[in-house]
Amino acid sequence: MQRRISLPLKLFLIVFAFVLGCIILISQLSYRYVQKEIRTNDIFYTNQILDKVDQYFTVNFSSFQTILFSVETSVKANINNTEVIKKQLRELYELNSNYVSNIYLIKSDLSILGGSIATRIFDEPLPEREPLFDAADKNRRTTFVSEPYKSKYSGWTVTMVRYLNGAPFPMAIAVDLDLNAIEETLFKINKQEQMNLALITASGKIIAGFSENKGPLNIQDHTFSIGETSAEQILNTTETSLQLHTKDGMPVSLLKKPTEKFNWTLISINDESRLKAALSRLETYYIELLAAGFLLSLFISFFIAKYIRNPLYALKTKMKRVEQGNLTTTITINRNDEFGDLSRAFDRMLQQIVELIRRVELHNELERKLEIQVLQSQINPHFLYNTLGSISNVIRLGQIEKVDVVIGSLISLLEYGIDDASEKVSLRQELSNVADYIEIQNIRYNRNFHLIEHIEAGLMDFPVFRMLLQPLVENSIFHGYNGGGIEGPITIHAYREDGIVIIEVVDQGEGIPADRIKHVLRTEPSEEEVKRKRIGLNNIHGRIRLHYGDQFGLQIISIPKEITRIRALFPTDSQKGDAS
Question: Which of 502, 87, 53 is nearest to 255 (CA)?
Fold first, then answer.
């Protein structure tokens, strides 16, 4: 047999799951929102750093341009004095040695006048200078910036070269940038900001940056790739922000920004270490939040389940007591809510049930008394004595022909009266019984109580109580016609009206005074009726009301000295039995 789970436990589990689910959902949404905000702020912060680095290169570019123009001016002023030119080149180099590796003039034979110590001594022609001189010669109005290369005297460098216009012989001014200084600057930023910055040429060559401890890169021959994505592919995309994966599957975020003055691109590669550190701190907070939410869910669920369990168990206990037959059980639930309403409604229902049981008992008791009264009255000794006396008088007067009539009518009355009083009979049977009764009374009182019947078609077989009409006719004889003192007709009507079957007995005797009518239908029979064992009108009235409801029963309409109508009202479908 499957074990049933109680409602409070179900409610506890539902509320616990709901509250905990809400907390988890809110926590996850909050976590994702904060994660998104941290990532957005990280991108914004990285862009700010890239902007500052670009500004740094813009300033440097201006400084390098200033150096070139200074050399150009000095050379033009001292074109015939080589020593002065060398001195000025040396002074400019020493003044800017933190940013440049060398400042020099390239002659058409690729020899130089240099500012650095090495090039002041070794000024022989070198093939590496040929591309620089040719580029300056082709672009005589602009400054040419070379690709990074390995210089014999300046090391890993980029050269800015400008053709010296107005000189008596072909010559170019060159400045070798100190890429080590630029790289040191980028390394400081990488270390301080936990970033990985690099300066890339348009062809994907690394000018400076990408410290060796920033693992996700593959750096070979001063170029790089991230996973399956090469530097050229990264530079060719129009997007400034990329999400890539290394060969190990590690996700990285890449941001790129073109420099304003150089044809270079600043690239930042973030392996999300900063983001992970921030999220790690955030995860600790959310774990604490979930633990608190778990405890809160337990508390709320227990409180709600207890709030419902106590009145529910009280009601259950009350119902078990009622089930065991204790209808007077009292368990008060002083709650101003649905449980309080339910408890009060249950108490009212119990009161109504107790009252209903009491009424049913009274109903049954009253019905029993009425049926007993009918049984006692079925063989009325006074009626029997008077009838036998009437037979004796008829014989004494020599009216032998009436003896058989009286005896036959008496036998029919006795046979009709000894049957079950609770059994219903047809209106036809009641009329036959009343005809026998009036026949006996006519002989007894030597009167002519003429019986008139007006029965609507279809009502002869209408079911009525046994001994319904005889008490009504008896009332007409004893009260209307003064117990046989006067004679007159007795009319019986039966008809339908507004869904009700009306059976009425009409006499034209003395009538009933208005002040007595309201006492005739009392629930208890009069002393005379009890003494004479006569069925009273109250008996008929009570039996009809008990069976069919208070809207049915007897009605008395009487005009003294003129007419009295006693109506018995029945439902049309009286065969359905009791209306209780």
Answer: 53
